[in-house]
Amino acid sequence: DIVMTQSPDSLAVSLGERTTINCKSSQSVLHNSNNKNYLAWYQQKPGQPPKLLIYWASTRESGVPDRFSGSGSGTDFTLAISSLQAEDVAVYYCQQYYSGPLTFGGGTKVEIK
Amino acid sequence: QVQLVESGGGVVQPGRSLRLSCAASGFIFNNFPMHWVRQAPGKGLEWVAVISYDGRVTLYTDSVKGRFTISRDDSQNTVFLQMNSLKAEDTAVYYCARDPLRGYGDFFDKWGQGTLVTVSS
Question: Which 8-state DSSP code applies to residue A86?
C-alpha cells in the first residue's frame, strides 16, 4: 500500500497570510504513461463531508477559489493557500489514486492565529 | 445539482449486519463508479470499497474483504454497502462518493453527508 504522510499535523495562521501543507507518498504517484501525478487534495470543515479542491496534483476543481493551489511531483506535494480566509479553517487531506487501495494522508488542521 | 444521500446507519451489536444505501440524483448515475469512504470518530478518512460504472468490478480494502459487499441498482440510482460480521472498529461515518473517471479507483468529486454506524454491545 502507498502510505501518505502529511506535515504538519496542525498549524495556526494569521488571516491574510500564506500557508503551505506538505504531503509525501511512500512511492512515486507519477504515471510515466501520461506524466500525471495521481494526487488529490480535499478540505473538510467541521461536521461536513470532504470537498475536492485539487486533482492531478495541480488542477483546481471548478468553483474552488484561486487562492488554493497544488504543486509537486513524484513523491512530494504541497497545497498552498495564498491568503488565508476565515472560511478556510478546516482539516486538509491528500489522497493518492495511483494504485489500490486508495489511501489518504492523516490530515492537517488549519486554524486562525 | 448532484446529490448523494446516505441512509441505513445506526447502532448495531458486534457480529450483526447492516445495509447502507446511497441515493443519487442530478447526474447520469450509470456513467460513474461509486465508492464508500469511512471516517472513524475524530479520525481521518479511509477508503472502503468501489464499484465500477457497469457494476462488473468491485474492490475492497483488506479489512472489510469477505465481510462487506458493494452493489448498485441503476434503475434506482442507488449504491449499497452490505456490512456483515460487524466489528467495533467498523464504527465510523460512512460516506458515499462519486468517482468522475471511468477507472477502478480515482478521486472523489462529490460526497454525501454521511451516515453514522456504531458497532457496540
Answer: G
Tell me the C-alpha to C-alpha distance, in Å, between residue A16 and each of A41, A111, B83, B97: 21, 12, 46, 32
The verdict on a CB contact (< 8 Å) between B47 and A51 is: no
Could you identify the residue written with the cell 446516505?
B6
**What secondary structure letter does DSSP report for B57?**
-
Could you read off the pLDDT of B84-107 as tens digits, one per residue?
Answer: 999 999 999 999 999 999 887 899
Q: Chain A partners of B45 at a C-beta cutoff of 8 Å?
A: 42, 44, 50, 93, 95, 104, 107
Whether chain B has a CB inside 8 Å of the CB on A107: the answer is: yes
Q: What is the pLDDT of residues A77-94, one digit of tens each?
A: 999 999 999 999 999 999
How is A64-81 classified by DSSP, letter by letter? --TTEEEEEETTEEEEEE
